[in-house]
Amino acid sequence: MKKRILIIGASGQIGTELTMYLRGIYGNHKVIASDIAEAADEVMKSGPFEILDAMDYDAIQDVVISYEITDVYLMAAMLSATAEKFPMKAWDLNMNSLFNVLNLAKEGKIDKIFWPSSIAVFGPTTPKQDTPQQTIMEPSTVYGISKQTGERWCEYYHNKYGVDVRSIRYPGLISYKTQPGGGTTDYAVDIYHKALKHNKYICFLNEETTLPMMFMDDAIRATVNVMLAAPEDVKIRNAYNLAAMSFNPQEITASIQKHIPDFKIEYNPDFRQEIADSWPQTIDDKAARKDWGWEHKVDLDEMTKIMLDNLKGEY
Ligand SMILES: NC(=O)c1ccc[n+]([C@@H]2O[C@H](COP(=O)([O-])OP(=O)(O)OC[C@H]3O[C@@H](n4cnc5c(N)ncnc54)[C@H](O)[C@@H]3O)[C@@H](O)[C@H]2O)c1
Predict the structure, then answer these.
(1) Of 51, 153, 137, 52, which Cα lies nearest the Cα of 94?
(2) Which tens digits make up the pLDDT trace of 27-51?
(3) pLDDT digits over 47-71, tens only?
(4) Which end of the chain is more exposed for a tag (fewer CB within 10 A), N or C?
(5) From ligand 1's centre to the CA of 260, what distance in Å?
(6) What is the set of active-site residues?
(7) Atom 1, ligand 1: which residue's CA is nearest?
(8) Which atom of ligand 1 is nearest to the CA of 119?
């Protein structure tokens, strides 16, 4: 059967770029974008779009049947910083949306699922350097607890019911096309906008907060590649560690100053500091590299150049 893809949460930071990338591969009308909110113009105008609530099993099933969907990418979620403000809502959305797609696959209505996990599955007791694929995981945030629980359920549905679900623990993702959606690594996008607009940025994390990060193009490629891998090569069915670069606010500032020498940063840490302090600094992603050939392409200085080149027209 020919592939037909449904993206749930297609209007968000990742969903927007993922939709356009998948439309480029499979054809515009084969990739159905959906969200509770309308997407960017390029998504709305290039192919099918449905208003769809990830919490509504029947509505998802209707879309799956009417478009003969084979693969679902579930990108709807409440992110780390917002989830700390609305714990029960975050738990409801992050868990029930996942159960909805897992159950559709269990019932044989779809073939394959992509569901993103996060470095937030790790916690303060996890080794912070070269964090292994398998290690201590005691997440201290609502978001992290929901992602870790989600991982357990993905593996369970795979082992018990043969559901073909694939997942990656994304680091902080940086893009120039769409604004981030309420995560703890959002500063690494905002800093480029403020550098161009005001020559100055006030950072909500302190200067030494090193976190794993990735340019969006690398993350989209990883997402599609893990979905294209032969099932037997996807040996890990909770979620793969994935890494590209790690940096702190001081280092991204130095990278920006190579292009904007008088750019200045000030630090005013807020509640997100505690979240960031609970996460790893560097990630060991050997398993993804070995099992399905993951390779990152973009490092910090290259990303800075791409971000500034693409954003400077806006300011
Ligand atoms: N962006 C990152 O740095 C990052 C890092 C790690 C993991 N992730 C994960 O990747 C996924 C996508 O993240 P993102 O950054 O694109 O998030 P985002 O907040 O930018 O986008 C999420 C989208 O989901 C939609 N949505 C919310 N509730 C919905 C509902 N009930 N039904 C349908 N759609 C709904 C929102 O309208 C939004 O467009 C999430 O699972 C997130 O946890 C993201």
Answers:
(1) 153
(2) 999 999 999 999 999 999 999 999 9
(3) 999 999 999 999 999 999 999 999 9
(4) N
(5) 32
(6) 143
(7) 173
(8) 6
